From TrEMBL:
This is SpoIIE family protein phosphatase. Residues 52-113 form the ANTAR domain. Residues 1-46 are annotated as: Disordered. SUPFAM superfamilies: CheY-like, GAF domain-like, PP2C-like, PYP-like sensor domain (PAS domain). Pfam families: ANTAR, PAS_3, SpoIIE. Residues 507-559 form the PAC domain. Keywords: Hydrolase, Transcription, Transcription regulation. The keyword Transcription applies. Residues 1-12 have a biased composition (Polar residues). The keyword S-adenosyl-L-methionine does not apply.
Amino acid sequence: MHDSQPPRNTAGSGAAQASHPVAAQRGAADRSTEAPTPQEGGGVIGRLTSTVERLRGELTRAQAQADGRALVELAKGILVERLDVSPAEAGRQLDTLAGQSKLSVLELAADLVNQASHDRISDLAREFVASAGEASMGVRLRSAEAGALGASDVQAVARSVLEHALRPLGARAVAIWAANSDQSLTLAGSAGFAEEEAMRWRHVPPGVPVPARRALIDRAPTVYESLAAGGLPSIGQREFGGGRLAVPAGTGGRITGVLEVCWPGDLPRQSQSLQRQFEALAELCATALESRPAVANDEGGIDPQTADLLELVHGLQDPCLVLQPDLDAADRAADYLVKYINPSFEDFAGRPRSAILGARLLEAYPLAAEAGGLFEKVEHVLATGESFRSPGMQLSALVDGVPLTTRASVSISRHGTRVVVIWRTEDGTARVASLLQHAQRLGRIGGFEENLHTGEIAWNDTLFDLHGLPPHAKPIPIEHLAAHVHPDDEHTIDRFLRTLLHHQRPASTAFRLQRADGIARHIRVVAEPVLDADARITAVRGAYQDVSAQHWTEVALAATRDQLAHTEQQAAERNRLALQLQHAIMPPSRGPLDLHDLRVGVRYRPAEKDHLVGGDWYDALALPTGQVLLCVGDVAGHGIEAATGMVALRNALRGLAATGAGPGQLLGWLNTVTHHLTDNVTATTICALYDPRTRALRWARAGHLPPILLRDGQATELPTVAGILLGAIDQCDYDEGEVQLKAGDTLMMYTDGLIERRDRSLEESLDDLLSTAGAADGHAELERRLDHLLRYSSSDTDDDTCLIGITVR
């Protein structure tokens, strides 16, 4: 009796089985009735062995057929989306196209998925077809991917990779190793090995020289022409002593395991395209390792995706940071976000905890980028999983341009997708750095401290004199500072207060102080929040400095430079004209309007940088039809082009609204105007018509964020209606939505400058906006509610912001 091998499942046979399931089932039934061979018929044991081998082969073929069907279903889904047909019609179209192109259904499905995905596998398929004419290579890789995505565990992924992609290359076995933080290896999945062999190699302790460990150390594929000649132990070394290949498997710059491929004889001829194919298969294995259920291993490993890691870090007595990789376009860690710091954390440079939490590692500690520094160690730990420990590592930070250095005992380890850094500095380092910070603050002129809970304010004598107030006068709260500055600097103070009070970060700015005695002074204010143990702001401390003399010196120097910089003067004039044009249509501040039973309030916040004159616009107008037109929009871009485009669209919509058409029709006409009568202008907008008789609001949108309805203390977003942005195509239909308003309702329409953030998604920003809007005082006047929403919005970009509030009386 001899061991029979499972039938080899090629791409061509898989395609035939996928396209003719009835024939495949008939073939399986025919094979199930075949008589045993003479070798298998010698007794009960022989017959049982033959049955087991036959069932094993049928199981392998069934798995291959399932992977092929998954790939065909992916292709059907692409046809459903592209042709807008039903799944059944997509299946018929796939069969028809396969017949016309003289390809199997599976081969055509692989081609469709390759064209739609544009990923590494599709690139490899094109290379192989161009260089070797091997059209089935894309089918094999796509089938392997389909099997991996549908697999329930890493073991199934190993079988799919071996059967679809590696057996055609002569490989007979594959092992997928998971790399542990203690430098040990765990066999997460395998195929082609005997069960006893896989159990024997279930765990490889640290220090054992196997091919997989060499690939981890080198962080590169490791090739052995003959495993026996290499003298290294590994799984299946007796049965597969031929060529051996170990490829690191990882994503996002983080190696989580190794793909090891075994040949009974010589390796296939190596080429760059073949190497890339192995790397693509290793990525599939890394995805499987990432998504496998997290179970504590023999060494007591912890699931890195749960709160257990943070709970562990929370109880440490030494300062600890939890870092998350910040990936670039190439899926490599360009920096690391400080996602969590434990209660024992104390910055060795004396800065508050709020200055470190949420920052990037190189922003908080730029000197960590030095060769052999902290950043390099963190990068190595993330990539290899190998922990790092040093009893005396140098740590450096820049504070106000002054480098501060200390030596500390440092420990770095990887936990899932995050890296934990623990350090213990020498006694007194943080205290000396804190004294340095206090000394720098004491050198300022006019110090103050304000308790936000009790309202108690402490000023020194110099600060009263700076404000032109007698020593017995009542100090000015920092929230009322905007009432004592030049009108042009009110937005500067608003941004300063948002950073300080809402974002709870240190802030500084310069402004013109309008004193009660009529004297104007140029002032610079620097302040920082004081946080309690629960990270809530309790007080504000800081200093004011009179920089008037410095300001006038800078003005004189600027005047001299302006005479020599004609080009800059032209650019400034262009921006000034654009800003004047923008403000002529939309003043930055505007009193409330009463339109029938509506009270309309508007807030416009220009961009933080003067040269970013944008195209945000709004309008509120009573129409001859008795309805009220309400709209807000945002023209793409900045500068004079955006400002002139904004004026054109705003005036065009006003004229079109007089026709009495609905909001959907108005946007359709406005899209035609934008596409044909403007110069490459695109814009988003919301157009609404309110009927005072029925209190019904009809609205449509062109790629804009939906309005927010405040009713009974709850803030909700109106259901989204379909509508593409203006100017993208020449003809477009816009759906309409309708909401029945009632007395006391408030509707908020805004541009994306109110919520855009660089560090979070749009959905998270929208949730923050709804929370902020719902937290406002429901009985407050409309003007105060608009000011509250503008001040405490979560945006951090330099874009313009338009906010319009409509209250039904």
